Amino acid sequence: MGSSNLSRSALLDGVEWNVRLSKVATPSLLAKFAATFDTYWNDPTFEAYDPTRDADRLDDALAEAGHRGGTGRVTLSLSGLEVRPRPHQSQMLEALDAERTGHGRHRNLIVAATGTGKTVVAALDYRRLAEEASARGAQLPSLLFVAHRREILEQSLRTYREVLANGSFGELYVGSHRPDRWRHVFASIQSLASYDISTIRPDAYDIVVVDEFHHAEARTYRKLLDHLKPRELLGLTATPERTDGTDVRRFFDGRTAAELRLWDALEADLLCPFHYFGISDGTNLADITWARGRYDDIALSNVYTGNHARTAIVLRELRDKVADVGAMRALGFCVSVAHAEYMAEAFTQAGIPARAVSGSTRPSDREAALNDLRERRVNALFAADLFNEGLDLPQVDTVLFLRPTESATVFLQQLGRGLRHASGKPVLTVLDYVGHQRKEFRFDQRYRALTGTTRRGLESQVEQDFPFLPSGCQIVLDEQARRIVLDNIRSQITNQWRHLVRDLRNMPDPDLPTFLSEAGVDLSDVVRDKRSWTRLRRDATKPTRGGGPRETELLKRVGALTHVDDHDRFRAYLRLLADDAPRYDYLEPTDQRYAHMLFFSLWPDGGKFGSYAEGLAALRAEAASRDDLRAVIEVAFDRARHVSSPLAGTLGQLPLRTHARYRREEILAALDYATLQRTPQAFREGVLNSDEWQSDVFLVTLRKSEADYSPTTMYRDYAISPTLFHWESQNTTSVASPTGQRYLRHRDRGRHVLLFTREHRSNDFGTAAYVFLGTAQYVEHTGDRPIAITWRLDRPMPTDTYAHASVVAG
């Protein structure tokens, strides 16, 4: 409507353009409006505003927003209101819970950009652990929070007090502050070192939180971490890969418990939008030495340093893309100190004041350079070996990538230097200078990190000029850069298997998780279509066990088990795939259902077996396939990010767990619907009536493609809130029909409603699995043929599921 008045003259006679929508002519569009409104109305992010209660909070929030990023500090007052996590923080908390509860891991790392609320997550996590202790009748867990700056400690203490609604919680140990009780201490690493860490009992603190964990390699941090033995260790960092090449994830068995993706942070307006320009710089790096997954820095430096033709392109494109070069604050990433110094001199000679900094620059000189950039005495800093420490400057509004960055993690860390919000900075301008690369270099990793897309979808994204980006963001490749990137991505797809074989052949004899980590590839690179871990090992001349007559068909089905993420099913499948697997006839009823689920995952058409026992016996004869299946299941379960729970009452006998993921054949087998005479391959409906379990089962695909659904049904199934779900029946179902009455009166009839959702029909492994949201209760309904029903979930859906199930996300 724009600014039009909702009057007769404005809508009918005005010269201004207006749009009138009719529910009769465009019912699906009006339904989308209504659904979006309902979703916002029920979103806990929005609060009712009471001027007598909330005026001061609103004034403070408006003042902070008006000076966003100006000081880099957030003022927290004890408002008396409960601090609730934002969606991205809820996802992190759920992931932490899954690491501890599902995997027994108690050393966990959170990775998220500066300014996205990592400390709030740590405080909310502590509150949850404290509530669990209270429920057990235990005292409040002891806490040691460690950081390297007084400002961080003071702000963190205020955050914990706000989250716990306790203005006296915690004590500072920094400068002249010294604790009295020593139960909940916010300490600087310098104070702890002077106190003598060895005098602290190793088990003195139940929970230890280390902020800015990338400092952990420093001697005092290392001494502290080696000495203390807390029940829970939590590391917080924006930069897991340090300047010296050390990856702090090794303190956590190489794992990241929770990571805020760039895409999600931009969607939540936690970071500044970016305009990214990929620019061909005319260089050819095809003959540069490549070793250990990266270019040789010395050879790269020789190509770039003194390259006046390339520098002319850099300057020309900078002046073209940045409106006022004299007002910009730019950060350029270089391959060497010589390269950085050359670029600084070239810019200065071109009338753009610039300086060079590096890891060897004295701290005082580095701080002076940062102040010069902050005050615009210089317009550019060129950095070498200094991509994450000592460059915390929210005012940076331009980033120049002047060298190829092989690691997607390092690329994001460097990009993140400019993504902080700051006053007067509406957007970050990113110039990435692209040359012809060696075939080993992978553009797909950085663009997947930028866009949040899958490997399969990236090629079409590049071809279509990146149509799906967070609000305010833009990726533009010039014609030559676009051709280089597309050729590189297509070459990776074409030659990928050969590269995987080569990488595996050059390793001693890794297991699947180690290979994926060392080679930097996804599970879908190894397991898809006719690809498998067994085939890769054989092509790389690594030892495998023998196969039988069913091997080919079984290896094609390995991708059907890449989603297994609940502990009971994981253990059951491993037992059934073991060399000494129990015979089918000896299994308990629940284990027989797990056997049916595994059987139909491997043979959706029944495999022409006369009995389950016959099928499992055939599986026992396939040693190599079983090894492959076990390896993939272990990788899948290791990546589980939800805590699954059994159903209540009689449904607890089912081998289904809420918030776990299941493919259609597993669901049908678990409910005893799938049999050798009625195989899951023949089932095509999205609803199932199980009289045996007195349940109606709904299988919902949220993102319906136009190829499979009509426009009028594109938005009919969606989450209204984490506990409310809008669902529409089949078009033939009326309120008065037996089916309609069964839905609407399920409680009166002692029946259950089970809801499963998935985002898309397929993924990189084939048919996608559903997330089991659990049981649901009828709330209300409207319409007829179809019936629109609102269900209330007995367990709130996972935060990441709600993020894409919400109609707002569509």
TrEMBL record:
InterPro entries: ATP-dep_Helicase, DUF3427, Helicase/UvrB_N, Helicase_ATP-bd, Helicase_C-like, P-loop_NTPase. Residues 317-462 form the Helicase C-terminal domain. The keyword Metal-binding does not apply. Residues 99-258 form the Helicase ATP-binding domain. Keywords: ATP-binding, Helicase, Hydrolase, Nucleotide-binding. The keyword Nucleotide-binding applies. GO terms for molecular function: ATP binding; ATP hydrolysis activity; DNA binding; helicase activity. Gene3D superfamilies: P-loop containing nucleotide triphosphate hydrolases. This is Superfamily II DNA or RNA helicase.
